[in-house]
Amino acid sequence: MRSYLSILLLAFALPAHADTVAEVSSPDGTLKVEVDVNGEGRLGYSVSRKGEPLIGYSRLGMNLRNGREFLRGLKLDTKATRSFDETWEQPWGERRFVRNHYNELRTGFVEGDRDHRRLDIVFRVFDDGVGFRYEFPKQPRLDEVQIQQELTEFAIAQPATAWWIPAYEWNREEYLYTKTPLSEVGTAQTPITLRTEKGTHIAIHEAALVDYAGMNLAKGEGGRLRASLTPGSVANVVRRAPFATPWRTIQVADRAGGLVESSLILNLNEPNKLGDVSWFKPSKYVGVWWSLHLDQQTWGTGPKHGATTENTKRYIDFAAKHGFRGVLVEGWNVGWDGDWFANGWNFDFRKPTPDYDLEGLAAYAKSKGVHLIGHHETACAVSHYERQMDEAFALFEKLGIDAVKTGYVCDAGQIERQDETNGPVVREWHEGQFMSNHHTRVLEAAAKRHIAIDAHEPIKDTGLRRTYPNWVSREGARGQEFNAWGNPPNPPEHEPNLIFTRMLAGPMDFTPGVVSLKGRGGQVIQNTLARQLADYVVLYSPIHMAADLPEHYEQHMDAFQFIKDVPTDWQDTRVVNGEVGDYATIVRKDRNSEDWYLGSVTDEEARTLQVPLSFLDAGRAYTAQIYRDGDGADWKTSPFAFVREERAVKRGDTLTLKLGSGGGAAIRFVAK
Ligand code: NOJ
Ligand code: CA
Q1: 41 SS3 class
Q2: Residues paired with 406 in a beta bridge
């Protein structure tokens, strides 16, 4: 009996013999995708790299809520391949020109039974990875599609180490990355980054998450990761055919830095829908923010209210004096008094508090060449916000406020949706289909007013900035705020983790630049001073905050100079060296000058790195303005050991960077 049972189990575990029905290789031939249909008509795919298995046989399919599964009885009906090679220009970004070069395979499957339902699967194979998606064509017997679960798998073919954060936990995306063997991954968010035993780096994520549920990955048997769609209040996804799912992406590189240099996610998004977005100005900002997280001031009104006319003027003056374009002010509007966390329905996004002269301040800012940055914290009363947002954006537009930070503070799964005024309130996830559509509605409403959006507690980034270039940045990870009050604060390995995981998705509003290196109540930040500067280069965002208090910058004017100088819009980006979770050195060329910038960060380990300056332009002389850890710099014992020095350098020279524990280096190469 026992052996009969185990034979039976084995028979279910192994895929029945599968035939390869279609295949496609990357332009340079290193990556190859094979599509299989087995004897039961089940679909699968596999990926090989340089002739070796990368993704083993992995299942494809869908479970529907309002119909039979798409799983077996399928046969290949059509197939077509094409090649594509185009270079496009980003209006702003980490690089100006992006090459989009792939071979595409489009496979059409049909059920052999009486319904003849159809499902297409499209693969795009780049030299640095693969994207594939399901497409539901228009068809007579399938109109509304309610997706319960996507049965997509990624069977990692070799043992691997994984860097990941858990999905479905209360604090959304704000977790420390854990490093485990792939076999110990639980249910992870994407991007998840892997390094195989042989040293190949893989990142699995998605591109163009539009009108769909975000995908998490649950660990199955062996090296198998299985799609787990974020639940929705009706089904996980409800769509009408024809439609396409987001792209499921597999990025591959030998070097960890190759993942960072890849533009695969952007390339799989649709081109710019907004037209000319030159009204968005990549820039830096200061504001009434860190004081709130330090608990020196409050969002709510009262004796400690941060958003007062007088306090804001102080920040505007500071911004004007030091050349910052933006001043963010949180707590400016009605609704923060009391427990705003618990009740976002009290927020009014059109009314300032009595002690905040919104119009007067906007005019004052304008007279000084500064722009207020708006703030819309919803506390997750999302439908309430949607009812006001058009008016709220119109108000900001009238006042010359052209960037808005939005926020969705509440536990995961607690987004409040109310489809009709006074109707029932149902709860949704931050990463579900409802929020995917909400963010699109916000982007479109904001774009009409020429307003850029920086979302905190957002849905994950999947490269939509290509299509909506007013979605300029977001949070979606543990930012600097955890250094104010986090228990624990961010450890030194946090940025070396972020660079190779979260940052693969897109820009992050991390809010660097806390030069005092202290959080609330004197909590120690686990960085050196030079490290806070390096973050501006290694963490890409077209808007970056100088997060610390003006009085703290006055005490560190030498370090502050780098924060004033560093651009936020780039011609080019390269990763000089790095290992996931250990260290990274990134260089970027300014989009508006001939200068290059370098940022280097390390975990708790002090390191000496040799950096060949082969990226510098040939035949040009540079002055390297170096901001580095001084002798003995160490976040625990000597965080303020700091040196600013200058050297003449040129292409072909090599710099030796000494980074202390939790340390970093920041360099501006000024072209002569
Ligand atoms: C969380 C955001 O990440 C933070 O930056 C903001 O200050 C608070 N929410 C209040 O909106
Ligand atoms: Ca946050």
Answers
A1: coil
A2: 376, 455
d(CA 500, CA 189): 14
> Can you give the pLDDT at residue 15?
53
Whole-number Å distance, alpha carbon 456 to ligand 1 midpoint, is 7
Q: What whole-number distance in Å separates Cα of residue 494 and Cα of residue 484?
A: 15
To test the pocket of ligand 1, the residue of 349, 373, 456 to mutate (highest count of ligand atoms within 8 Å of its CB) is 456
Which residues are CB-contacts of 132 (< 8 A; sequence separation ≥ 6)? 33, 45, 121, 122, 123, 124, 247, 248
Asked if 609 and 600 touch (Cβ cutoff 8 Å), the reply is yes
Whole-angstrom CA distances from 587 to 154, 527, 564, 670 are 33, 20, 18, 13
| Partners of 570 in beta bridges | 590
Taking CA atoms only, the protein residue closest to ligand 1 atom 10 is: 377
Number of DSSP helices (H) and strands (E) in the chain, helices first:
13, 40
CA distances from 403 to 247, 438, 537 (A): 29, 18, 22
| Dihedral sign computed on CA atoms, order 460, 463, 466, 469 | positive
Nearest Cα to Cα of residue 361 among 391, 319, 406: 319
Distance of CA 343 from the midpoint of ligand 2 (Å): 17
pLDDT score, position 9? 44
Give pLDDT, residue 8. 44
Whole-number pLDDT of residue 391: 98
Q: Of these residues, 153, 481, 493, 495, which one is catalytic?
A: 481
Name the pairing type of β-strands 283-288 and 52-60: unpaired
Q: Which residues, judged by CB distance below 6 Å to any ligand atom, belong to the binding site of ligand 1?
A: 289, 330, 377, 407, 409, 456, 475, 481
What pLDDT is stored for residue 114 in this prediction? Answer: 79
Ligand 2 centroid to Cα of residue 477, in Å, is 8
For residue 551, what is the DSSP state?
H
CA distances from 342 to 314, 380, 485 (A): 31, 9, 20
Cα 595 from chain centroid (whole Å): 26
Residue 242 DSSP code: S
DSSP state of 177: -
Å from CA of 509 to ligand 2 middle: 10
DSSP state string for 279-312: T---EEEEEETHHHHTTSSBSSSSTTBS--HHHH
481 is catalytic: yes
Q: Is 355 left (phi over 0), alpha (psi -120 to 50) or beta?
A: alpha
CA-nearest of 569, 505, 596, 2 to 263 is 505
Split the chain (672 residues) into runs of 10 and give each run's mean pLDDT: 44 65 98 97 98 97 96 96 98 98 98 92 99 98 96 98 98 98 98 98 99 98 96 96 98 98 98 98 98 98 98 98 98 96 95 98 98 98 98 98 98 98 97 98 98 98 98 98 98 98 98 98 98 99 99 98 99 98 99 99 98 98 99 98 98 98 99 97
* Angle between helix 529-538 and 557-565 (nearest 10): 0
Q: How far apart are the first and last CA of the chain?
A: 82
Under 8 Å between Cβ of 21 and 33: no
Ligand at shortest distance from the CA of 476: 2
| DSSP secondary structure letters along 189-220 | -SSEEEEETT--EEEEEEE---SSPPEEEEE-
E strand spans, 483-641:
543-545, 570-579, 583-590, 596-602, 607-612, 621-629
